[in-house]
Amino acid sequence: MPLSALLISPSGAAGIVGGNIAYRAKKVRGHGTWEKDRLPSAGVVGRESGQVRLRVCEHSDRQTLHAFVETRTAEGCTVNTDEWQAYSHLPEHGRTHKQVCQQPGHREWARDEDGDGGREVHSNTAKGMWTGLRNHLRPFCGVNKEQLHHYIAVYEWAYNYKRVTNDFLRALMMPFTLKPT
User: Fold this and answer.
1) DSSP 41
2) Most buried of the four, 40, 48, 139, 154, by CB within 10 Å?
């Protein structure tokens, strides 16, 4: 697939939120690392395309996050995030950055910037995607961190496919049939 097919278009907004995929027993707050078994992951969701791009990362630092955003969004796109400091330098990488503050005492879940009544600045799309990923992983009762990227790839594929079509069924059944359908 060409790289351009993986990019969120500049005309569309992308929501990005880093998530931590943790083992059930790890109840520690904060950003995770590979070494602590709280695996950081990065993801973008295109608001217009509905496409998602996910990756398991070794660290959840600014450098890792910015490299992920640069390779998976088109220059000039708007990136909506929460207020985490790692996102603050996105404009230096050619992305428009809008954020909502979700800290206790200053909670702002969505904001209407252009006065049309629609609250277009929010990270709810990405947060909903992370909830879907957690629900996808829950039945497995723990996933080996070396294999997590495979589970995330299956979720990304299913999220992006959206509809069950004949092509979808052919792709799903091809490994189990001797001749093409």
Assistant:
1) E
2) 40
Which residues on adjacent β-strands are paired with residue 54?
43
Pull the structure tokens for residue 87. Answer: 């996102």
pTM metric for this prediction: 0.70
Q: Which helix (H) or strand (E) holds 132?
A: helix 124-137
Beta strand spans in 94-140 (E): 96-99, 110-111, 121-122
Which class for 4: exposed (0-12), middle (13-18), buried (19 or more C-beta within 10 A)? exposed
Region 64-86: mean pLDDT is 85
Q: Which domains does the chain have, with CATH numbers?
A: 3-176 (3.30.420.10)
**Helices 148-161 + 124-137 axis angle, to 10:** 120
Contact 15, 123 (CB under 8 A): yes
**Each residue's pLDDT tens digit, 44-74:** 888 888 888 998 888 878 888 888 888 888 8
Q: Give which of 85, 94, 78 is closest to 14, Cα–Cα.
A: 78
User: What angle (nearest 5°) sits at the alpha carbon of residue 48, between those of residues 74 and 108?
Assistant: 95
